[in-house]
Amino acid sequence: MDNKNIIQLITAAVLSIGGLIMLFCGVYIEPHGQIHESLLIGFGEVATFSGALFGIDYVYRNKK
Fold first, then answer.
1. Closest Cα partner for 51 from 14, 22, 21?
2. Where are the domains of the chain?
C-alpha cells in the first residue's frame, strides 16, 4: 500500500466520522446562538458524503 492510498483512506474515515459528529451536534445539541443547526447539519451531510465517495473510490481502485 502506498502513501497516497493511506492518506485517501484516512481522509475518508475522518470526513465520515466528522460528518456524523456534526450531524449529531446539529440535531441534539443546542447551538445557544453561536452556530445555527442548519449549518451543522449541512456540513455534516457534505462531509459524510465526501467521505463515502473517498471510501468507495479507495475500494474500487484497490480491488484485485
1. 14
2. 3-61
Higher local confidence (pLDDT), 11 or 64: 11
> Under a CB-based contact definition with an 8 Å cutoff, are residues 38 and 26 in contact?
yes
pLDDT 10s digits, 18-33: 888 877 777 777 765 5
Query: Rounded to 5, what percent of the chain is helix, strand, coil?
Result: 80, 0, 20
Contact (CB, 8 A) for 22 and 37:
no
Backbone angles phi, psi at 30, to 5 degrees: -65, 130
Using CA atoms, how far residue 17 sits from 34, 43, 54, 58, in Å, is 22, 12, 13, 17
